C-alpha cells in the first residue's frame, strides 16, 4: 500500500511539472510576473520531485556547473562593480534560469522523451494561435484581444504595448517547425514559408532577419544534398519578400513595409544605414565609450541604464544616447560584464554551438539543430537584440538551449 502511495505521489508531482512546462509559452505572453511565478513554481515542485526520487545524479553535468560559475560571476560583478540594488537582484535571479534549463533538459529527455512529444504538440498549438492572431491583426488592425500597435508597420499581438511579439516568434518558430518535420513532413515547407510571411508582417527588422537566417540555414542543412532546392528557396524568399509589398496595408507615407526592412541596402552602405535609420546607433556609441573605459569588469549588471545617461557619454552636439540597455548582445555583455564576462559567456556559447552541431551530425535530432541555430542567431553581430538578462528574452533563450542540453541529462 505504501509503495502504491509513493508511485501515486510521484505521478502527481510529475503531472504538475509537465503542466507548468506546457504553459511556459503562455506565461511568456502574459508578462514577466507570470513567467517568474511559473519558473519559481517549477523549481519548487522539481526539487520536491528530486527529494522524493532521491535522484541527484542529474547535477553531475559540466554545463550546469559552468552556468553556476557564470551566476557567481554575475553576483560578484553586481556586488563589487555595479553596486546597485537592481543589478544585485538581476544577478541573484539569474540562478533561476540555470535551474529552468536543468529542469527542461531533464524532462525533455525523461524516460526516453516520454513527455517531449506532448510538450511540443501543446507548444505548437500555442504558436499556431499566436500566428493566426498576428494575421488577424495585420488584416483588421487589432488582435483577438483588441490590442493595437501605435507604431507604424509593427504588430502588437498578445504582448500588447510592449511590442515584443517578434522575439517570441523568433524563439519558437524552429521549435514548432521541428515538430512538423518529425511528424508531418509534407507540411514542413508550406508552414515554413507561411511562418516567414507572418514574421515579415510583425515588422521587427532584427528578428525578421534572424528568422530568415536560421530558416535558410535549416533548409541548407536538412537538404544539403539538393543544392538546387536551397538555391531556389533563397530566390523564392527574396521574390516573396519584395512582391508582398504590393499587398501591404501598413504603409506609412511613402515608406512601405519592404522599404522599412531594406533601408540598409542604401548605396552608401551599412554604416550609413545605422547612422541615418537605426534608433540604436547612439546606444552603440555610448556602449563603445563605456567599454573603452571599463573593459576588464564592465560597469556592472543593469548599470547601462544609469551610466549611459551621464554627461560624459552624451556629447553636447548629439542627442541623448542613454537607454535601458545597448540593444545589442555583444555591446551589452562587454559594457556591463567586461572582457572577463564576455569571454565566459561567448566561450560557453561557442562551445555549445560546436557541441550542438556535432551532436546533430551524430543523432540527426532536428530539435538539437534548431536550438543550435537559434543560439548562433543570438550572437550575430550588428543586429539589434533585447537585453540578454531580462526575464522575457532570457526565458526564451534558455528554453531553446535546453534542447541541446537534454542529451547530457539523465
Structure description:
With 410 residues, the protein is mainly α. The protein is built from 18 helices and no strands. The radius of gyration is 22 Å and the shape is globular. Residues 1-10 and 245-270 have low confidence and may be disordered.
Order of helices and strands: HHHHHHHHHHHHHHHHHH
The assigned structural class equals mainly alpha
Mean pLDDT across the residues is: 83
Rounded Rg: 22 Å
Query: Which shape, going by the Cα principal axes?
Result: globular
Number of strands: 0
Count the DSSP helices: 18
Q: Give the biggest sheet.
A: none
Strand content: under 5%
Low-confidence stretches: 1-10, 245-270
Q: Tell me the helix content.
A: 55-70%
List keywords for this structure.
single chain, mainly alpha, 69% helix, disordered N terminus
Amino acid at each position: 500500500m505504501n509503495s502504491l502511495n509513493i508511485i501515486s505521489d510521484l505521478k502527481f508531482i510529475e503531472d504538475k511539472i509537465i503542466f507548468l512546462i506546457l504553459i511556459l509559452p503562455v506565461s511568456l505572453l502574459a508578462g514577466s510576473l507570470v513567467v517568474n511565478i511559473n519558473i519559481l513554481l517549477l523549481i519548487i515542485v522539481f526539487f520536491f520531485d528530486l527529494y522524493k526520487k532521491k535522484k541527484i545524479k542529474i547535477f553531475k553535468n559540466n554545463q550546469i556547473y559552468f552556468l553556476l560559475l557564470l551566476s557567481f560571476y554575475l553576483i560578484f560583478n553586481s556586488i563589487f562593480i555595479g553596486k546597485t540594488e537592481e543589478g544585485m537582484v538581476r544577478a541573484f535571479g539569474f540562478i533561476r534560469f540555470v535551474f529552468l534549463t536543468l529542469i527542461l533538459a531533464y524532462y525533455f529527455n525523461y524516460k526516453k522523451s516520454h513527455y517531449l512529444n506532448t510538450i511540443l504538440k501543446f507548444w505548437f498549438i500555442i504558436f499556431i494561435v499566436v500566428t493566426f492572431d498576428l494575421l488577424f491583426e495585420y488584416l483588421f488592425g487589432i488582435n483577438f484581444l483588441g490590442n493595437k500597435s501605435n507604431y507604424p508597420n509593427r504588430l502588437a499581438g498578445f504582448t500588447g504595448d510592449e511590442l515584443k511579439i517578434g522575439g517570441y516568434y523568433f524563439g519558437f518558430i524552429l521549435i514548432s517547425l521541428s515538430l512538423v518535420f518529425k511528424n508531418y513532413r509534407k507540411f514542413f515547407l508550406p508552414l515554413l514559408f507561411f511562418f516567414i510571411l507572418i514574421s515579415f508582417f510583425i515588422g521587427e527588422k532584427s528578428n525578421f532577419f534572424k528568422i530568415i537566417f536560421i530558416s535558410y540555414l535549416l533548409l541548407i542543412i536538412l537538404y544539403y544534398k539538393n543544392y538546387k532546392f536551397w538555391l531556389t528557396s533563397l530566390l523564392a524568399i527574396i521574390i516573396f519578400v519584395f512582391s508582398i509589398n504590393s499587398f501591404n496595408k501598413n504603409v506609412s507615407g511613402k515608406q512601405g513595409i519592404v522599404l522599412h526592412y531594406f533601408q540598409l541596402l542604401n548605396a552608401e552602405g551599412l554604416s550609413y544605414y545605422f547612422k541615418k535609420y537605426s534608433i540604436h546607433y547612439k546606444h552603440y556609441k555610448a556602449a563603445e565609450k563605456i567599454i573603452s573605459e571599463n573593459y576588464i569588469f564592465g560597469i556592472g549588471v543593469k548599470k547601462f541604464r544609469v551610466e549611459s545617461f551621464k554627461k560624459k557619454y552624451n556629447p553636447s552636439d548629439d542627442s541623448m544616447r542613454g537607454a535601458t540597455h545597448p540593444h545589442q548582445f555583444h555591446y551589452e555583455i562587454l559594457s556591463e560584464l567586461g572582457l572577463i564576462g564576455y569571454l565566459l559567456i561567448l566561450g560557453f556559447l561557442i562551445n555549445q554551438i560546436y557541441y550542438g552541431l556535432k551532436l546533430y551530425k551524430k543523432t540527426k535530432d532536428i530539435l538539437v539543430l534548431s536550438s543550435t541555430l537559434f543560439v548562433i542567431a543570438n550572437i550575430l553581430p550588428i543586429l539589434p537584440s533585447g537585453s540578454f538578462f531580462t526575464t522575457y528574452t532570457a526565458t526564451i533563450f534558455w528554453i531553446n538551449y535546453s534542447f541541446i542540453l537534454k542529451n547530457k541529462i539523465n
